[in-house]
Design brief:
The chain is α/β, with parallel strands linked by helices. Helix content is 57%, strand content 9%. The chain is built from 20 helices and nine strands. Strands 3, 4, 5, 6, 7, 8 and 9 form a seven-stranded mixed sheet that branches. Strands 1-2 form a two-stranded antiparallel sheet. Helix 2 packs antiparallel against helix 3, helix 3 packs parallel to helix 5 and helix 7 crosses helix 10.
């Protein structure tokens, strides 16, 4: 009997050893494999050398560190890159890190690890440079399944405080790195499929502007496909771009654009300005096109506008308000030392509302200082696509009247809003060169920093 028990114990022990061996073999198979029979040791040795080089102050050494990992396309290696060099301060190092990860993108374990890191970082502390780098690696894919995973992430987080819109917009504005144009375009095409693209003007305009940075046939086709989803200023942006790079003018007619592109999509030339965009003629205010669907007119009524200046400005503003089509939503702001907003929100350009706006415009009288910053702040609060800012003098009074500070603050607000701010300088006093230069620099700088047009009138 004891002999039988002993044999049973031996059998159990042998089974346990076999199971342990199988588990160990499975773990070894999951580790980075150098091909020399000692995968874990090989990776650990490379990892130590990588970490040493990754801390080197010379960018060339940090790039050399990445080359050490080329034979270890695994989740652990991907995580190592994510934690060290994907947010490197040197552009070439950061791009090399993302390029290596892109070359591993077909491996599910690599994508899974990057998604885990990206989602965890975004949920806990909001998207940082590492998470943004991981998204750029993943979003440039051509794989439909991976695209859907990225799109799910975008629909979950875009529009929440977890996504730093300033960081995201800065990344799009920076454009593609050398040799990265196709990846960059695919990422933006994926962004345009996100729910947030349809609901947020600033993100929609930023994404469209990113897509317009190159002239590839694929991008033109995608922009054409987007036309039915666009409206207002973004529609004009895209149609104008199509006009410039093709020399054709089909407005927002998708069928005509596709027909032309199928025949001559490899040819392009520049033209001055679109004749049409969608339906109807383009209206102008002081020679600046009114192409947005949500506009705010800001009129300076300070003391220096007294007399012929304010009368002429009122006449021009009344003319353009009365010509607005009903599809446009608008508002009027008058300002001197204080700010007067005609309506608490943008209103449709129906006849009775336009007539009411005319009455409000005629009631304005020239008096007081020039609180430019306060007026622009109020205009932003109305959530327009475009602001038309008319003034005859440098800022004075209000919350701040330092021109460079006003431009810096407004431009910072506008990085993710993408409102076009057009500035119209009236009656610049050429006799006072210092004042004229200060005013002109302010008005020009305001427009140039905010996707607008500056014009000066004597």
């Amino acid at each position: 009997m004891p002999g039988r028990t002993g044999r049973m114990l031996v059998s159990v022990a042998l089974i346990a050893v076999a199971l342990a061996t199988r588990i160990a073999n499975a773990q070894d198979a999951a580790r980075p494999d150098s091909g020399n029979g000692t995968p874990d040791k090989a990776f650990q040795k490379v990892k130590r050398e990588y970490q040493q080089k990754a801390r080197n102050r010379k960018p060339a050494e940090r790039i050399a560190a990445l080359k050490l990992l080329e034979d270890f396309p695994t989740a652990d290696a991907a995580e190592l890159i994510y934690l060290t060099l994907i947010d490197d301060h040197a552009d070439d190092v950061r791009q090399a890190a993302m390029s290596l990860l892109v070359s591993w993108r077909e491996r599910d374990e690599v994508c899974d690890r990057l998604f885990t890191r990206m989602k965890t970082a975004t949920r806990q502390n909001g998207m940082d440079l590492r998470a943004l780098g991981a998204m750029r690696v993943l979003a440039g894919t051509e794989d439909p399944a991976l695209q859907e995973r990225v799109l799910k992430f975008l629909d979950e987080f875009l529009g929440t405080e977890r996504i730093d819109q300033f960081l995201l917009h800065a990344m799009i504005d920076a454009g593609p790195a050398p040799g990265d144009a196709e990846e960059f375009s695919r990422m933006l095409m994926l962004f345009s499929r996100a729910t947030f693209f349809d609901s947020h003007f600033g993100f929609r305009r930023c994404t469209a502007q990113g897509l317009m940075q190159t002239r590839s046939k694929d991008e033109l086709e995608h922009l054409i496909d987007l036309l039915p989803r666009l409206k207002g200023l973004v529609l004009i942006d895209v149609v104008s771009h199509l006009n410039r790079v093709t020399g054709q003018d089909f407005g927002d007619d998708v069928a005509k654009w596709k027909s032309w592109l199928a025949q001559r999509g490899d040819k392009a030339k520049s033209i001055e300005r679109p004749k049409t965009a969608g339906s109807g003629r383009i209206r102008e205010y002081y020679g600046i096109p009114i192409t947005a669907k949500r506009v705010v007119f800001v009129l300076d009524t300070s003391g220096s506008m007294l007399g012929a200046k304010i009368a002429a400005a009122q006449t021009e503003l009344i003319r353009v308000v009365m010509e607005l089509p009903e599809a446009v939503f608008f508002n009027v702001i008058a300002f001197d030392k204080s700010v007067r907003v005609w309506q608490p929100m943008l209103v449709p350009a129906a006849n009775e509302l336009k007539e009411a706006a005319v009455s409000a415009i005629l009631e304005q009288q020239a008096r007081g200082a020039t609180a430019s910053f306060d007026a622009l702040e109020a205009a932003f609060g109305l959530d327009p696509e475009a602001i038309y800012f008319v003034s005859d003098g440098a800022p004075s009074g209000g919350k701040t009247d330092v021109p460079k500070d006003i431009i810096a603050t407004i431009s910072k607000w506008n990085r993710v809003r993408r409102i076009s701010i057009h500035s119209i300088g009236i009656g610049i006093d050429a006799k006072n060169e210092k004042t004229a230069n200060l005013f002109s620099r302010f008005m020009r700088g305001l427009a140039e920093a905010n996707w607008g047009i500056f014009t000066s009138l004597n």
